[in-house]
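ping. complex inputs:
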Amino acid sequence: MAEAKSTGAARPAGVAWTALLVQALLPIALILLLLGFALVESRVLSAGNLLNLLVQASYLAIFASAQMMVIITRGFDLSLGTCVSAVSVVSALAMTGSLAAGGEATGLAIAAGMLFGLGMGALIGLFNGFAVAWLRVNPFVATLGSLNICLGIATMASDGRPVFNVPREFSALVYNGSVMGVPMPVVLAVLLLAVLHFVLNHTVFGRALFLIGGNPTAAAVAGLPSRRYLTLAYVLCSLIAAVGALMLTGRTGSGEPNLGGNLTLESIAAAVIGGVSLRGGIGGVPSVILGALFVTVLSNGMNLTRIDGNVQMIVLGSVIILAVFLDRFRAVAR
Amino acid sequence: MTVRPLAVHAHPPTGAEQLSQRLLSVGLLPILLVLSVAFMAVFEQKFFGLNNLFNVLRSTSFLAIVAAGQMLVLIVGGFDLSVGAVIALTSTVMAKSMAALSAAMPDQTAAIITLGVLAGLGCGVFIGLINGLCVAFLRVSPFMVTLGTLSIATGLALLLTQGIPVYGMPDVFVKEFGRALWLGLPTTVYIALAIIALVWFMQTRTRLGRYLYAVGGNLQAAIVSGVPATLNVILAYVLCSVLAATAGVLMTARLGSGQASMGGDDMMLQSIAAAVIAGVSLRGGIGRVELVALGALFLSILTNAMNLLRVDSKMQVVVLGFILVLAVALEEYARRRRRHG
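pong. complex structure:
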């Protein structure tokens, strides 16, 4: 987003205004949406629900920012949802397994669970990155393949059943706890997104990702180690998704082989609605947060106003298509 | 990848080189097909039972029809994620309208069937038009547009049925068509063959076919040479959805009820997999329907073989994932080999 503003300044004032309007469109839409739902159902604006919205949006923002890492490079990750399932199952199994073996050492069990979960995520990311960057397999096909592989791992490892007996302390750590009144998921999401924001904007790797996505030929000519960076982007994507998966596992208190569900599509939708371009090279943490908030407010509002779940699907589909219109409009304004 | 010295071309290629060149030009698919059938001949005779062969042929037919449509969209450089949802929508709309028409005019079976099938195919035209118009006029990412229509069509199908199977289609339609054998083969096989032949004819003998390749191969060049690119892209998407709808009609006739769970993500993924294994390029401009049909046959045989060999269904998913990535990696390798001589 930063570069859009800086280039906008050099152009005639009219263009800058259009660009500003496009920037402001989503926040305005978000507020209107919230107020609209509040008119129908006053509970939407209650303190409890607003906090709930924030927690929900935290999870989605994490998954959408994972997705953003690879969308910036003109790729995407279809395996995100099943990766979340696989990480959830593997980490829960690691925790229950080490509890069964080691007895009372809960802290050790939690550490083992996190280690195995993150390791699983890194492995999946390496597979995707290797296939995309080194074997030059189209990201769609590569991650379609790993989608299937992760699905298999998740269901085989768990036998298709939830893995229970995840230590309560783990849930306390990543879900129930709070720091100065702010719920733990929100704290974790803010920390993660802040680090990600720094990496994207203030490190060579982060800046290089934008160039690789915006103009791959220029990136190659400039001598960037594109393959290594691309691989790293996929590894980071899966790692961030794994962190989100651990947080979701803490919330449900069990390893769920279906935890990923619609996360892949939702994460892509949130990122693109927020303004991450599928043409690559454009995106940022603030966009992802806005997109995640928008999708969360939409589905939360529809739930509270008791709109049929099937109608919700139709609405979400229409919003996705609308977002693409908006993306096109943004590109023209730029 | 090793860089081969230029001198290699100075002397005639050795036998091994000739063989590898020929393998790369034919593609791996026919070889894989023969190998898998040979494997089954040795390890599992049940594969060659008549009923099992019919099952393989049926699922190949469904998949080949959808994959042929998917291929057309891939050729123009697009994607269609909504094919599975179109199947679901077609299935429920057709069954619903047939059931309603049967209640209104019980005697006119022919009219009921015709109108019902038309209503089903109409869903395909409708979704295909949305996809095509959005992609062609707005030049937006087909991924997002078809993701949107996927969600919309699934929502509509579920809304229409509330997830309950729709019965009440005329018996004739199910017994004399959907589950029937003509000259000893399931009806769907003939229809699939006819569709593949039509698409083959379209691709090799008509202007539309050449235009589709031109648009996908090099959009700018196509526009400059006067190819109506927008129209052709829209047509590709409409054809894709109509073919998916056709598969939906056939699957519904076979099953005997309209179901919102029909098709789904599975059909979407499999149709792309079948096309990609058959060498259809995701960059557009490349793809032949006869190979796509072989790809569908290979996937169906593979699934069936794993079922017969009692491979865990979860393991099957993993195997399919690896095969998909491997196929594309090999294809990419072959492409680069060819380009570098």
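The mean pLDDT of chain A is 87.
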